[in-house]
Amino acid sequence: MDIANEAAEKPKDDADIRVGRRVRALRLERRLSLADLAAKAGISIGALSQIERGMSSLRVKVIWPLAAALDIEPSALIADGDDAVSDLYCVRSNNRRSIPVKSEGIAKALLSPPGATLTGMLVTVEADGGTAEAYAHAGHEFGFVLSGEVELVVDSTKYGLKSGDSFAFKSTLLHAFHNRGAERCQILWVNTTKPSEVRDGA
Taking CA atoms, which of 10, 20, 48, 86 is between 20 and 30 Å from 32? Predict the structure, then answer.
C-alpha cells in the first residue's frame, strides 16, 4: 500500500501534523518548492504533500533521505516538543535566529517564521552603536521603539525617538540609525524584504 492511499484511510494524527508542519517550515526556510525537495529526497511530490499536511506518517525509509535533503539530522524531524525546530507560524523565544549585520553595536534577531511575507526583527542597538553608513533597499518598513533612545535618519532628516515612539517609511529612501544615549535601545522592526536582504549597509 502506498503512502497516499494509506493516508486517505486514516484520520490525521497530532504527531503527524506537527511533523508535517516542521517539514514544510524547513522546506520554506530553504526556499525549496515541493518539487525541489521531493526530487532531492527521492520521493513523489504527492507523498511529500501528504506528509506536510499531516495526512501521512513519516516512514523510517523516508526520514533519512528527507533529512539529508534538508541538511539536518533525522532526529530533528521527529523530535518531541514544539521548540525543537522552527514552526510554520510561530517562533519560540529560545529559537530566534540572528541576522548578520555589518555595523558595530547592532544585533538583529529574526521574529518571523519561515515563509512569512513580512520580516519581523528585534533590533538591539548598544550605546554608541549604529549603522556605519546610510543604506537603502527595496520594500517598506515599520518600527516601534521598545526601550531606550535612537536617532533615526531618513532621507537626510534626523528624528530623535524614545520608548513608545514609532516610524514607517519606504526602504528605498536612504536611512540610518544610531544610539546616542547611554543605555541599550531595542526596536521592534518590521520589513517587507527577506531576512537575507535586511542588513546594515547592504
Answer: 10
